[in-house]
Every structure is written in structure tokens, then in C-alpha cells.
Specification:
This protein has helices at residues 26-30, 36-51, 54-72, 81-84, 92-109, 114-133, 144-166, 173-181, 188-202, 204-212, 217-225, 228-247, 251-256, 273-289, 293-310, 320-340, 347-357, 359-365, 369-379, 401-416, 420-427, 435-441, 446-459, 501-525, and strands at 432-434, 461-464, 474-477, 481-486, 489-494. The strands form 2 sheets. It has a 3-stranded antiparallel beta sheet with strand order 1-5-4. The protein is globular. With 526 residues, it is mostly helical. The chain contains 24 helices and 5 strands. Helix 9 runs antiparallel to helix 12, helix 14 (273-289) runs parallel beside helix 16 and helix 22 (435-441) crosses helix 23 (446-459).
Length: 526
């Protein structure tokens, strides 16, 4: 499959190429004088991109662009590509990359209008057409961080446009007319087509399969897959597809696209912390919505423990604040998963979770519905509907419809499990007990209580991943406290594994030893 869409001929007549500005706002830019510092930056940036100096490009992209933004463009847009084109000899590839940064800045710091949203989409079309349409690899090298940011921003802008398009209540007639004449803009099929095309062009799945079997990935990579640009974009597109399917509510497909991605091994995502966090967040969320709580808990604990250990080493890029918020969301999702399926987790992660969620954990354990809804609403992604709203309908906002659907599914699962925590708490207190007695404790008649016991058995039996693709797993009982019924008696056995307190004390002793070593070093220095 090859991405060959080219919408440049379908632009609105009020646009003049891909400059990012409609004609009615062009004069303010035409009279703008670009600061000399910015001109020098652009010239230097263009030269390094043309000469494929990865380290220098990364330095200018990660530090230079952000510093100049803080200095000159904190509340205004960067100069349009029309103004900087003469500085770079009208280099087509560099101008496309510049526009990608230009529109990203508008999304991050300003308020994009309908024209910015459409023109940014067309610019992405230009970029991906250059990458995918040629018969040989594009002569371009970009830092891994920038490649991830391109995929991440591409999906984010699709998400933002879908939400924007669904808010019909305050749309002007001009905006509605523009949406009608550009219905192909940010179409879900186009976005999926781009990501799948990048995956196929890079042969990334074949490469990952070869690596897993201990073979040389370059043998199956082909001409494009051997190029770091295509290999990295292909890998990041797999993660982008996982994210996109989660946003659309297809959790099975979200994990299916990652069949050949091994989360337990170091991979390309390890070099980009924001990518790694995104990967684990959406995998964990997909597991949670598929009622695979042990796998969700394992996924969240792995990444949260990784972040605790490496937080001082993670560079503060423009996505750092978003990563911190996503980490906060994962603690809330972990609390929900542990409530549904109690099990021992790493002590440091457990402590951090209790610090961040506080009293809400106790309310979760007591079955408070409002707390579940509030925590889920905060921690879930912004769901999307793949079907655009009718622009000729009643004009009502429908941007919350997808969320309401997923919230209803989650709430239904919660209500089905409503009595399970309470039943579990009683089962832990006894080794055997008459059914009638426990039913009386819960103010239920015997037959209803039997139904709840069967539900407990059913809900606590789920597939648990051990190895292989993320969707694979062995059916296991994750109840912690198991039971069987003989006549009118319940016989109970505790199957939970005791918390490894020894490891906790060893870890704390190690910390004290490090502190003492530091004190001794300081005393010698004096």
C-alpha cells in the first residue's frame, strides 16, 4: 500500500500555496521584519539539514528553536515561509519541515483557526508524499526525537481537528462552508493510510520479527528499511496506530498492530522518553478496557518504575509537561486497575500512587461510583468518532459522544463488579461459611448472592500475558481469594502471594548505606 494522496490542487482559492496564511491575514506578515538572530538561525538550520548533520540538527531543533520561541515568538507566530524562503534558496524540503514547526508552534502557543488547521494538513500531505512516493529513499536525515514528534503531532492535530469539527454550536457560516468544501481534510482514512504506508515502506514488522528470532534485520529491511529515516518513522507509526485505535475505541486492534513490538526489550522508543510513555500509556489503557487488569497493572508499573528511576535524566523538551500529565493519568488508571483486581505492586510505585490519588483510593475500594467516573474521565484519552458530524443537521455539539459511549462501557463494567470488593473482603476473613450467613451480611437473598458469587468467579478469570504478542495470554484466576461451594457451604482458600517485605527492607538499607557514604565523603572533604 502506498500513500499517494495529493490535495494541493483542491485548495481553497483564497489560499496561495502552502504559506500557512489566508490572503486576508497576509499583509501583517508581509510588513514584518525578521530579526537578524532568527535569520541566522534559519540559514544555519537549513544548511545542517541539507548536509545531514544529525547532531547539529538536533541541537538547533531541540534547543535553538525553543529558545528563540521564548525570546521572540512567545505570543506570536513565527515568520511565514514566504519570508524565510529567500534565506534558504527556496529549498522545498526545508520549507516543508519549517512549516511543520511553524504550525506546531501555533497549536502549542496560539489558537489555530480553520485555515491553519487545513494548511497544516496539506503540509503533512506534502511531507509524506515526498517520503513515500519516490522510488528511492529521500535524501534526508532527522533526529529520532523530531521523527517521533512529527508522528505524534500528526495524530494530535487530527485529534484536535476532529474535536473542533464536532463542536458545531458556535461555528460561523463561513467556517461551515469551509468545512463543506474541504471534507477530505483530516479524514480518518487518510491518517490511517499514512501510518500504514510508513509501516509497510519501512518493512518494520519484518525487521522486528527478524530481531526477535535473532537474525540480522538488515537482510529483510530492504532499501528503505535500512535508512534510519524510514525505519524510525515506521516504528513510531506502529505506536501512532496503537494510539489512534485507542482513540477510536478499537482496543483489540490497538494491541494487534503491536504484535511484533516487545515491550520488555530495549527498542527505538527507549531513546525518546515521550514516545515510551505514550506507548505504555495506550497499551495499558487498552488492556484496562479489555478487562485484562493484571496486564494493565504490569504495563503501568513497568513504565512508572522506569520514570522514577530516570526522571533526572529525561531532558525537558516541549513535550515534557504533557509527559508529566500522562504520567499522572497512569497513576489514576493503575489505582482503578488495582481496585478491580487487587495484587501486590512495587512498593515505590504503590507509595507514589497513594500520594497522588490520596483519599480517592479508599473511595474506590468502597465502590463509590462518582470517584470511579471522575478518575476515569481525568485519565482516559480524548476519544474520537471516526464519522464526521453532519454539517446540515441541527447544529448541536457532538464532540462528547465518543467519550460518553466509552464512559458508559466502563461504567457498565464497574456496576457489574460493584459487590466484588465487598465479597472479597468477607472471603478473606473466613475459611468456610454458610451461604445464607454471608448473604445476610450483604442484605441479599440466597439466590441473588449465588449469582454474585458466580459473577466473582467469572470476572476474576482473565487472560494474562506471559510472552509473545500482546494479545496472547493464558487464562488464569486473578481473584487472590478463591473458593468453591459444597452444598450450602462456601470453602475459601487464599491464593495471593505475600508481599515481599524482604526486598523493601533491603532497598531501604541500601538507601541508608548510600546516605552514610555521602556523609563520610563530605566529612573527608572538610
Amino acid at each position: 500500500m502506498e500513500f499517494t494522496e495529493d490535495f494541493t490542487d483542491e485548495l481553497d482559492p483564497s489560499y496561495n500555496g502552502h504559506d500557512g496564511y489566508a490572503q486576508d491575514v497576509r499583509p501583517s506578515q508581509a510588513s514584518y521584519n525578521v530579526p537578524e538572530t532568527v535569520k541566522n538561525f534559519i540559514v544555519q538550520f537549513s544548511r545542517h539539514v541539507k548536509q545531514r548533520h544529525i547532531d547539529d540538527i538536533h541541537q538547533l531543533y531541540d534547543l535553538g528553536f525553543n529558545r528563540l520561541t521564548e525570546r521572540f515568538f512567545k505570543q506570536t507566530a513565527w515568520p511565514s515561509d514566504e519570508l524565510i524562503a529567500p534565506l534558504v534558496d527556496h529549498d522545498d524540503i526545508f520549507l516543508i519541515l519549517y512549516r511543520e514547526l511553524y504550525y506546531r508552534h501555533i497549536y502549542a502557543r496560539l489558537q489555530p483557526d480553520i485555515y491553519h488547521r487545513c494548511q497544516s494538513y496539506y503540509n503533512y500531505c506534502d511531507l509524506f508524499n515526498h517520503i513515500l512516493s519516490d522510488d528511492e529513499p529521500l535524501n534526508l536525515s532527522l533526529p529520532t526525537q523530531w521523527l517521533w514528534d512529527i508522528i505524534d503531532e500528526f495524530i494530535y492535530q487530527f485529534q484536535s481537528f476532529t474535536q473542533y469539527r464536532a463542536k458545531l454550536g458556535k461555528k460561523t457560516q463561513e467556517e461551515l462552508d469551509h468545512l463543506r468544501s474541504h471534507q477530505q481534510v483530516w479524514n480518518v482514512h487518510s491518517v490511517l493510510n499514512v501510518l500504514h504506508s510508513l509501516v509497510e515502506k519501512s518493512s518494520i514488522n519484518s525487521q522486528l520479527e527478524a530481531i526477535a528470532s535473532g537474525q540480522d534485520a538488515d537482510v529483510v529491511a530492504g532499501e528503505f528499511g535500512c535508512d534510519p529515516l524510514y525505519r524510525n518513522l515506521g516504528y513510531f507509526s506502529l505506536i501512532g496506530l496503537c494510539r489512534l485505535h485507542c482513540l477510536l475505541g478499537d482496543y483489540h486492534q490497538a494491541l494487534k498492530v503491536l504484535d511484533r513490538v516487545d515491550l520488555s526489550k530495549k527498542s527505538i522508543s527507549a531513546s525518546v522518553p515521550t514516545c515510551r510513555v505514550t506507548l505504555f500509556y495506550y497499551v495499558g489503557f487498552a488492556y484496562l478496557m479489555m478487562r485484562r487488569y493484571p496486564d494493565a497493572i504490569r504495563t503501568f508499573c513497568n513504565i512508572l518504575l522506569y520514570l522514577q528511576r530516570t526522571k533526572l535524566l529525561i531532558p525537558k523538551s516541549y513535550q515534557f509537561d504533557a509527559m508529566v500529565k500522562q504520567t499522572e493519568k497512569m497513576y489514576h488508571l493503575l489505582a482503578i486497575a488495582v481496585t478491580f483486581c487487587p495484587q501486590n505492586i512495587d512498593e515505590s510505585v504503590n507509595t507514589a500512587m497513594r500520594e497522588k490519588c490520596g483519599e480517592r483510593i479508599h473511595r474506590l475500594n468502597s465502590g463509590d461510583e462518582k470517584t470511579f467516573i471522575d478518575m476515569f474521565s481525568f485519565a482516559c484519552p480524548k476519544f474520537l468518532s471516526p464519522v464526521p458530524p453532519s454539517l446540515d443537521g441541527d447544529g448541536k455539539d457532538c464532540h462528547m459522544d465518543a467519550f460518553n459511549t466509552q464512559n458508559k462501557i466502563f461504567l457498565g463494567e464497574f456496576r457489574q463488579q460493584g459487590l466484588i470488593p465487598i465479597i472479597r473482603s468477607y472471603l478473606k476473613l473466613y475459611t468456610s461459611m454458610p451461604i445464607a450467613k454471608m448473604a445476610a451480611f450483604l442484605d441479599l437473598d440466597i439466590e441473588d448472592f449465588r449469582t454474585h458469587l458466580l459473577r466473582y468467579k467469572h470476572k476474576m478469570c482473565m487472560p494474562v500475558w506471559t510472552s509473545g504478542p500482546l494479545l496472547s495470554g493464558e487464562m488464569k484466576s486473578c481473584a487472590g481469594t478463591d473458593f468453591y461451594i459444597e452444598g450450602e457451604m462456601i470453602h475459601i482458600t487464599d491464593t495471593s502471594v505475600a508481599r515481599p517485605y524482604g526486598e523493601y527492607f533491603v532497598r531501604e538499607i541500601g538507601k541508608v548505606a548510600e546516605l552514610n557514604k555521602g556523609f563520610r565523603t563530605m566529612s573527608h572533604m572538610r
